[in-house]
């Protein structure tokens, strides 16, 4: 099989991804934060177009099924904005799912099968039916290209262990990468150990929001173990951008530039300019990436922004 990255508008050679934002949401709705829903295709499309205009070419959209993920809407946004959009299957952290949510009823095998089908055959829509591209009667299925799993603050309970095991099984079935989103960067070591114990190679795993704990030694340990670490704190209230840059540069100096990713992780409507909030998805390319380039140089920045995402998001041979 030729190397490919799977987007909602078709498969691409990895080199065509170019500058990639590794952690965002475009369409999402959660009972945990109903006031912050991203549920307007036109507004989210405007936000995506602004991101593209600021210099981003591809985006990893990490909304899993069951939380307002709308594959046909993502395809429409991709076509409108010009972004390559890699959609996610998988799960969020447990808090997003009330007790009656259907995803809680799936055992490990059924959840893994759902994730694998999203990637290999086509995404389900929110109504459980196959999603179709906008305006296409019998077009190709819209497929996910990455597996997402989320963990809460210092917790890997029974439900999370089932989610992690299902993600690992789906990874082995499809070859897609896993992006594990962490609450305040806790449980990173434990998440990596759990997934590798289930047979996932560390270089098929990215640990996101890792800079919400600015511990460069921890980040270096994870990178040395083979995992990717995704910095998503720029423009957030957790730490100033200068702290994040210092942490990232420390990782580069330790020889781990090939394991660093970046994303915006704005998350909800209050942070999207098209929905009336701030600072918008374009904060990453307009404000943070120029500072990164000025202190780390173009070669390192291009590695982080282009080469690393292309390597991680390329579908590997299953097994």
TrEMBL record:
Q: Determine if Mitochondrion is one of this entry's keywords.
A: no
Q: Which UniProt keywords apply?
A: Hydrolase, Metal-binding
What Pfam families is this protein classified in? PTE
Q: Which superkingdom does the taxonomy of this entry point to?
A: Bacteria
Xref: InterPro entries: Metal_Hydrolase, Phosphotriesterase
Q: Which PROSITE patterns does this UniProt record tie to the protein?
A: PHOSPHOTRIESTERASE_2
Q: Which family does it belong to?
A: Belongs to the metallo-dependent hydrolases superfamily. Phosphotriesterase family.
Q: Mind telling me what this protein is named? A: Phosphotriesterase-related protein
User: Which species is this UniProt entry from?
Assistant: Lipingzhangella rawalii
Species classification:
Bacteria, Bacillati, Actinomycetota, Actinomycetes, Streptosporangiales
């Amino acid at each position: 099989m030729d190397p490919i990255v799977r987007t909602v508008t078709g498969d691409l050679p990895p080199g065509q991804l170019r500058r990639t934002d590794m952690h965002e949401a475009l369409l999402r709705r959660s009972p945990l934060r109903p006031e912050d829903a991203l549920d307007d295709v036109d507004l989210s499309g405007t936000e995506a177009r602004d991101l593209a205009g600021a210099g981003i070419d591809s985006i990893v959209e990490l909304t899993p099924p069951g939380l307002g993920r709308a594959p046909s809407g993502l395809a429409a946004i991709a076509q409108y904005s010009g972004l390559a959009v890699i959609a996610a299957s998988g799960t969020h952290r447990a808090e997003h799912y009330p007790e009656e949510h259907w995803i809680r009823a799936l055992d490990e095998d059924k959840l893994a099968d759902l994730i694998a089908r999203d990637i290999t055959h086509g995404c389900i829509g929110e109504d459980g039916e196959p999603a179709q591209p906008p305006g296409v009667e019998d077009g190709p299925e819209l497929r996910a290209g990455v597996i997402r799993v989320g963990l809460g603050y210092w917790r890997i309970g029974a439900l999370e262990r089932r989610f992690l095991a299902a993600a690992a099984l789906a990874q082995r079935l499809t070859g897609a990468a896993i992006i594990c989103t962490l609450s305040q960067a806790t449980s990173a070591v434990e998440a990596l150990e759990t997934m590798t114990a289930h047979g996932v190679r560390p270089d098929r795993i990215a640990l996101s929001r890792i800079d919400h704990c600015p511990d460069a030694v921890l980040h270096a340990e994870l990178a040395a173990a083979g995992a990717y670490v995704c910095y998503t704190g720029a423009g957030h209230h957790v730490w100033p951008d200068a702290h994040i840059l210092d942490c990232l540069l420390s990782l580069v100096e330790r020889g781990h530039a090939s394991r660093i990713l970046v994303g915006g992780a704005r998350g909800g409507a209050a942070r999207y300019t098209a929905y009336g909030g701030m600072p918008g998805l374009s904060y990453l390319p307009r404000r943070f990436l120029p500072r990164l380039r000025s202190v780390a140089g173009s070669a390192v920045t291009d590695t982080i922004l282009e080469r690393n995402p292309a390597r991680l998001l390329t579908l590997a041979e299953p097994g």
